[in-house]
Amino acid sequence: MREAERLLLKAGDESAVSIRAIASAVGVTPPSIYLHFRDKTELIFAVCGEHFRKLDERSEAAVASVTDPAERIARRGRAYITFGLDNPEHYRIMFMARPDALAPRMSGDELAQTAAFGHLLADVQAGLEGGQLVGDDAFTLACGLWAVVHGITSLLISKPEFPWPPLDDLMAAAMGTHRPPEAQRRPKRR
């Protein structure tokens, strides 16, 4: 798995990494890899599985000393985006792969059960209960917030040449849409 990850990062593209190349780098024959992994997709997702844990660790570290749910959500969003920018190829595989290229454990219900999403959902529920967020359903709102940070992350990865505003300004503009009107008002910069 370490060699597959090294090749993945070196190539910068999952499609450029083959079972043959991984086997050669490890010093085994390609069929021996199939004793451990059904196919290349399963191997690549095993490599990325560790990164789901790292994403949650980064998210939890970002909110460790924060009790305000809205601030926790904003910090989680920033941690998510920076994780994606720091790990663009893993991020592409984790969240931007074609549906037919996904390992079964990376689909719908499984993603909803990840620790990172569960922690976001808990903060959204606390924000709704405390009146810091507007909405009727915590799950729907958490999905919307995830879609916002995923969109930002995906665009920053795929369109780095675009003249993006500073990340904090971009996030404030995008995330503020889910807060009550009084919470959306920000002092103008001078």
Describe the protein.
The chain is mostly helical. It has two domains: 1-36; 48-184, Tetracycline Repressor, domain 2 (Orthogonal Bundle), CATH 1.10.357.10. The protein has helices at residues 2-11, 19-26, 30-33, 40-62, 69-86, 88-95, 108-112, 115-129, 138-158, 167-175, 181-184. The longest helix is centred in the N-terminal third of the chain and has 23 residues, at 40-62. Residues 184-190 have low confidence and may be disordered.
Class from secondary-structure proportions:
mainly alpha
Q: What gross morphology would you assign?
A: elongated
For the record, the count of structural domains works out to 2
Largest sheet: none
CATH class of the largest domain: Mainly Alpha
| Low-confidence segments | 184-190
Number of helices: 11
Strand fraction = under 5%
The strand count comes to 0
Q: Could you state the order of secondary-structure elements as H and E?
A: HHHHHHHHHHH
Supply database-style keywords.
190 residues, mainly alpha, Tetracycline Repressor, domain 2, 11 helices, elongated, disordered C terminus
Q: What's the quick description here?
A:
By secondary structure, the protein is mainly α. It folds into two domains: 1-36; 48-184, Orthogonal Bundle (Tetracycline Repressor, domain 2), CATH 1.10.357.10. Helix content is 66%, strand content 0%.
Helix-strand blueprint:
Blueprint: H1 2-11, H2 19-26, H3 30-33, H4 40-62, H5 69-86, H6 88-95, H7 108-112, H8 115-129, H9 138-158, H10 167-175, H11 181-184
